[in-house]
Amino acid sequence: MQRSAAYAFLALLICFFALNAPAAAPAETYPNKTIRYVIPFPSGGITDLMARTIAQKTSDAWKQSVVIDNRPGGNALMGADLVAKSTPDGYTWLGMTITHTVNASLFPQAPYNFSKDLTAVTVLGSLPLVMVVPQSLPVKSLAELTAFSRTRSLNGGSSGNGTPQHLAFELYRQLSGANAQHIPFKGGGPSTIALIGGHVDFIITGLPECLPHIKSGKLRPLAVAGAARLPPISDIPTTVELGMPSLAITSWTGLMVPSATPKAIVARINAEVVNVLKQPDTAERVREQGFAIVANSPADAQAFMAAEVARWSKLVREANIKAD
After folding, report:
1. What's the CATH superfamily of 26-126+251-319?
2. For residue 15, is pLDDT > 60?
3. How many whole angstroms from its chain centre is CA 248?
């Protein structure tokens, strides 16, 4: 009986120390399994291109797989909702863009709350948009495109309703009076493919999506929607130069995780991703794609995204932009 009591007491001691032993901080052991990097767009778009660069480099650094999971649909809502409702442990990332800050007002009944359910890790990079046409279209300037629209109605593609590409299209149509119909696609990759195939007459899109096709001669750039020319296409004028300063929209891509993710893990992800972007070979690669590197802190990224939500909410309301 005494032996049984001793065993019972020993078992209680073991349980007590096991329960009260200091556990390793999550950030100290992070990451120790595969990370899922959800991209709510098809492959080939600006978010996907940047994400694949980040995934490869962080996989190499951490010796843990960072797997790209393309989840297009619902104007990028589906992929974002998946991440917002995932376990907040740092193993599910969201590749997001300006589109999500527009969605916050465009889809008030979205299945997740952008401001409450997700938190920023960093803004990865930004880039102005470029207006491009297929080589078969008989126009070689923005003025010629506008004039050509007087002869017949044009089809202008975008990455989806409410995306910066769509907003740029609407601004161009308002400022120029061009006769053009908006055709939304599910991402920059599909809209670029449609343009090459002759299914639309022009698109305003991110340079990374169309640069390979500009270099191959399939597409012709007409204007950069910004104030500064882009090094990869330095001979192409800006909309500011062409007398349309209001047609200047900077797209960007960032990284988010569920809002309840421990701050130490958010900081760990931020430190590695920022380090990756500052590596000379990575920096050169993303600049060649057309990006300007941002790589800011979680606090600065969160403040920037909140400002973007407010900015686009005003434009969506004033331009009466509706969801599909």
Report:
1. Bordetella uptake gene, domain 1 (3.40.190.150)
2. no
3. 18
